[in-house]
Amino acid sequence: ALATGPRLDALLADLHSRGLFSGAVVVGRGGEIVWEKGFGLANVERGVAFTPETPSDSASLAKTITAALVIMLAREGRLDLDAPAQRLLPELPYPEITLRHLLSHSSGIPVHDYDFFDPYVPRGQVRTTEVLLGVITAEKPQLFFRPGEAFEYNGFGFDLAALAAARAVGQPLDRLLDERIFRPLGIKSAFLRPGRLGDFPGVRTLGYRTVDETPQIHDVFDYEAFHGGSNIYISARELHRWST
Fold first, then answer.
1. Residue 190, class by beta-carbon neighbours within 10 Å (0-12 exposed, 13-18 middle, 19+ buried)?
2. 234 bridge partner residues
3. Which helix or strand (DSSP H or E) is residue 15 part of?
């Protein structure tokens, strides 16, 4: 561990100096953190430094949290992974799709990316999972394949699985995650991002990319209030806690 720290310091400092990395890194052995450090700014305009305690967008790592929650509820008998997802998502127009299909990217729902919904959702409308599911209900797009017969990466499937979990217990997803995942693990930094970025709690961690040696904002989209496949914020230190 003593040798790891200096090498990581040098490696990450070099990447940061060349504009290739800003953020936080946590290295652990089992449940023990052996090295952690932040590099650069989480918010350049506000001068907020990036630290291991800085909540940032976990992107698709949110899928691991959603999958764990759904499997936990399945073990308790609160939902059935192999029953039609329509039991909890009656709006879903595909009776053959199960929660297991949603979690294994094998549902066939024809949503490559969220821009699929752009023609159907007015600009400026907050996009909840229910709103996006309403589009699928109304349009009934043809499945890419019969559920379970192929694989196609689909983040929206995890949003639907998270919505099903919340309905199974009769609680909002944020409260359910807090009670079942975050509090038991002592995770205090994690939260679901609000649909409007203007409603963000505290100083928001921004994404940047370097252009001509200058950091320029490379941000997430506004009006996203679908959660499960993404849009869970958590610090690097507590992401380490989750991973162990």
1. buried
2. 56
3. helix 4-17
Asked if residues 37 and 9 have their Cβ atoms less than 8 Å apart, the reply is yes
Is the overall model pTM greater than 0.85, yes or no?
yes
Q: How far is CA 103 from the centre of its chain?
A: 14
Question: Which tokens is 215 given?
Answer: 């950091």
What are the tens digits of pLDDT across the range 63-121? 999 999 999 999 999 999 999 999 999 999 999 999 999 999 999 999 989 999 999 99
Cα distance between residue 180 and residue 178, in whole Å: 6
Largest CA distance in the chain: 59
- Chain centroid to Cα 28, Å, comes to 22
Joined together, the tokens standing for residue 149 give: 């017969």
Q: For 28-41, what is each residue's pLDDT tens digit?
A: 988 899 999 999 99
Q: Which long-range contacts (CB under 8 A, 24 or more apart) does 191-194 make?
A: 191/55, 191/232, 191/233, 192/227, 192/231, 192/232, 192/233, 193/57, 193/220, 193/224, 193/225, 193/227, 193/231, 193/232, 193/233, 194/225
Supply 41's token pair.
């700014």
Burial code of 95-109, b = ≥16 C-beta within 10 A, e = fewer? eebbbbbbbbbbbbb
Strand blocks (E) in the chain = 23-29, 32-39, 41-43, 48-49, 56-57, 127-128, 191-192, 208-211, 214-217, 224-225, 232-234
Give the 3-state DSSP-derived string for 51-75, with helices as H, strands as E and coil as C: CCCCCEECHHHHHHHHHHHHHHHHH
Q: Give helix 155-169 / helix 62-75 axis angle, nearest 10°.
A: 40
What CA–CA distance (Å, rounded) separates 191 from 233? 5
